[in-house]
Amino acid sequence: MGWSHRLRTLVQEPIVPFLIIGAGLFGLQGVLDAMAPKGDREIVVSNDQAVAMVQTFARTWQRPPSQQELERLFDEHVRTEVFVREAMALGLDRNDTIVRRRLRQKMEFVSHGEQPLTPPSDQQLQAHLEAHPERFMSEPRFSFQQVFLDPSRRGERLNRDAEALVVELNQADAAADPSSLGDPLAMASASWQGERRSELLAQFGTTFTDALQQQPQGRWVGPISSAYGMHLVRVSSITPGELPPLDQVREGVLRDWQDVQRQNHQESYYRNLLARYSVRLPQF
Amino acid sequence: MRIRALALTGVMALASGLSSCASGPGTPLESKAAASAVIEDSQCASGNRAYFGDTHLHTALSPDAGLAGTKLGLEGAYRFAKGETVTSNSGQKAALKRPLDFLVVADHAENLGLAQGLADSDPELLKSSLGQQLNEMLKAGQGREAFYLLVQKMAKGSEAKISNESFMQNVWKYNTEVAERFNDPGKFTALIGYEWTSQPGGGNLHRVVVFRDNKALADQILPFSNFDSENVEDLWRFMNFYEEKTGGRVLAIPHNGNLSSGTMFLPRHQKTGEPIDADYARMRHRFEPLVEVTQAKGTGETHPMLSPEDEFAGFNIVDNSNLGGIKPTTPDMLPYEYTRAALRRGLQLEQQLGVNPFKFGLIGSTDSHSSLPSTAEDNWWGKSPALEPSPERWKDVLIKSSKDPSLDLTALQLGASGLAGVWASGNTRTALWDAMNRKEVFGTSGTRLTVRVYGGYDYTGDEFEAADWAKRVCAKGVPMGGDLMAASEGQIPSLLVQARKDPDGANLDRIQVVKGWLDADGETQEQVFDVSWSDPDQRKPRADGKVPSVGSSVNEREATYTNTIGAPTLTGYWKDPAFDPTQKAFYYVRVLEIPTPTWLAYDRKNYNLYDEMPATAPYTSQERAYTSPIWYNPS
Questions:
Q1: How far apart are CA B97 and CA B503, in angstroms?
Q2: CB-based contacts of B131, cutoff 8 Å, min separation 6
Q3: Of A56, A204, A252, Cβ closest to residue B503
Q4: Which A positions 213-232 lie with beta carbon below 8 A of chain B?
Q5: pTM, 2 dp
C-alpha cells in the first residue's frame, strides 16, 4: 500500500509521463485554448484557470503561492500561450507530423480522464472472461513420442525409410524404443509428457506444432515436418486449453476489461467529435 | 573513505531489512543453502534446452526512459516478455511472437523512479534542491528543459542526485516486489537486477548487476549507483559486501564497450590511471563473468580495423563517438572496446598477473528503454518510445551530440539486436544465474538460433550419433565457458559444435571457430576458421582456406527471403591445426545465418518509404550467435 501502490497506479496511468513531456512541448491548456477561433489577440486567464494553477501549486508545496509566485505562474502561462498562438498562426504545427501525432495522442489521453472509474462487478468480469476465451485459455498440453529423420542424411530415401519405420514402430508398439531409432537431433528428446504448446513452438517451430495437433492418437504416424527435418510421431494425448475460473485469472481479466472500456470510451469520444464535421474523401 | 560511508549505509539498510522480515518464512541468511545449490548445478548438469532472455531492459522507472515518454512500467515489461499483448508507449498493440524465458529489468540506479516521483510531487524528491527545481519546471510546463537540465547534470556525476535513501528504498522494494510476483519458476524467470551507470567523460562503463537471490536478500541493500562511485572497483567492493552480508550471490555484466572511448577493457585503474594489478584482475574475474557482446547500440565482437582478415567483422558497428556524443572514437581506442581484443589481452595479462581479468563469456541483450524487449527484425519495438514502429522512426536520432552532428547516434545505425541464450538445468533464478556465472551462455543478434560447443582431447567427431551426445561429450571435455587442462604429450584439443536454426527463422550459413593465442614473443594473435557450412558439395574452400559466400535469397524491396539456401542444422568437428601446448589460447564459436532483411527493410516495405529512405541503408544482414570461449592454459 501507500507509496508503492501510488507509484504502481501512476506507472499504469499512461497520461502521466506523457504529460511531463507534453507539458514541456506546448502546454496542454495552451494548445486547447489556441484551438479556439483564430485571430484572437486577447489572452484571458479565467478564474477557473487561476484556481487550478493555485491548486496545483498548493498540492506541490503544501501551501498557497505568494503574490510573486502567482505572478510568475501567470507569466509562464501567458508566455506559453503567446508562443503557441504565434506558432499556430504560422502553421508550424500543420506540416509537422510529430506535432500532429502528439496532438492526436494528447486528445486521446484527454478522453481517458473523463472516464468514470467504477470498478466492475464479478458478473461483469465473468461475462468478459466468457466473451473472450481466447485471451485467458490455458495452454494445450501434448504428450507424444517422436523419431527424427534428417533429410540431409537420407536424401531420396527419406519417404521410403519413413514408411518402413512407421510400420516397424507400430508393430513393435510399446516395445519400441524411439530414442534408438532415426537420426540424431540434439536438444530434442524422443519422449514428451504434458508439454506446453509454447515450449513446442520454441523447440520445433510453428509448422510442426500445428501439424502435431492434427495427428491421430495412439499410433505412429508421419512423417510431419519441422524446421529441422521430418518426424514420425505417436501422440498419446493432447489436453486442450481450458478456460480457468475467474479467481485464477482475475487480475488479467480486470486489466483487459479496463482496456476495453478505455477503448470503447475513446472510440465514442472520437465519434462524438467526428459528428461535428462533414468529411469528404476522394473517390478511387 | 567513500567505501566506509557506503558500507555504513549498507549496514543500516541491512539492519532495517532484517528487523522487518526476521519473523517471516523468507528469513535471509541462507548462505549454506545457496552454496550447496551452486555445487549441485555444476557443468554437465545443464539440460537439453537453451533458455532465451534479456538481461538488460529499462522501464518507465529509468529516469531517462520515463522522461523520454516511456509509460510502460514493470508490469507492462513483464507481461510483454511473457507473451501477453500490451499497449505500447505510442498506443499500439504490441506482442512478441514467442515469449521470452527470462528477464532482468535493469533500470538505472541513479534516480530510480524519478519521472513518476516528480509527477507525483513526491515529498522525498522535493527535499533536494534539484528535485524542487525540476518539479517547479515541470509544473510550469517546462518538461523538456527539465529533462535537458537533468541530462547536463548527469554528465557531471553526482550533481544530478535527487533521490534520497528513503525514496530509493521505496522504489527498490517496489521493483523487487513486482519481480517476485512475476517470477514463475519453470515457466518464466524474473531475475532481480539494476544498472550501475558510470560514464566518466561520456564513456560508457555501465554494468548490469544481476542477483541470484530473491527479494528477502536483495532488499537488504540499495542499488549501488554512479552517485556512490563512478569507479568500477568500488562497485565490486559493494558486490562483495552484499555477498558477505547476505550469503547471496551477484554478478555484473559490462555493456557494449563500443561507446566507451576506449575505456571498457583498458587495463588501467580508473581512478589512478596506473596499470591494473592482481587484485583488480581477481575482482574483475570474479564479479564479471559475462560481457554483453551485442545490443541495439552496436555489436562489440570485433572491428574491421582490429580483425582485417575476418570477412564478417563489420557487423552492426556503431563507433563514431562515445555514449555522451562528446568524444570522437579514434583508432587507438578500438583495442579497448571490443571483446575479441579484450579476450586476447586477457591472455597477456594472465601471464603478467597470474589472473586473467578478461575471462568472460558472451551474451547479447536489448538495452531497450521502452519496456518492450524485442529483437525480431519484422517485429521490432525499438529502443525507445520514439523508435516504436512508425513511418518516421528511421529518421530518429537516439543520442544527439551537443558538439557535432557527425557524433550523433542515429536510428539508421541501430540493430534489432541482443538476446542471451543460457544453457541452464531449468528455468529458475538459481539455475539461470549459475549457468551465467559458469559462462555456459551465448549471445545472438536477436535470432533464437541455438549453439553448443564442447572442447576436449578425446573427441573423434563421431559423437553426434548419440541422442544424448551433449551429456556424453561433456563427460569427456568441457562446455563453453570452461577450461581445458594442460595437454599431455601428443594431445591436441578439438571442439564439437552443434547449431540449430531458430525454428521459425532463417537457415544457417556456417559454423566458425575463432582462436586467439599468446605466441612465443608474448604477442597475441587471432584466426578465424570455417568449420562446417551448408551445401559442402557446392561450396569448396578457396585457396585462402575461406568458404565462399552462401549467397542471398533476400528481396530487399519486398523484405522477404526464402529458406532455399543454407541448412537447418549444422554440426562441426574441429581439431586445432596449429596447436602449441605451451601457448595460452581461447576458442569461441560464431554461427552465421543466411542473409535476411533488417528492420529497416521491413519498415520501408510496411510504410512504403521507398522514395524517402536512403538507398545506402543496411537492408540485409547475416544474423549470428557467439558462444562463450573455452580457454586453454598450459600451466
A1: 12
A2: B118, B125, B162, B163
A3: A204
A4: 226-229
A5: 0.82
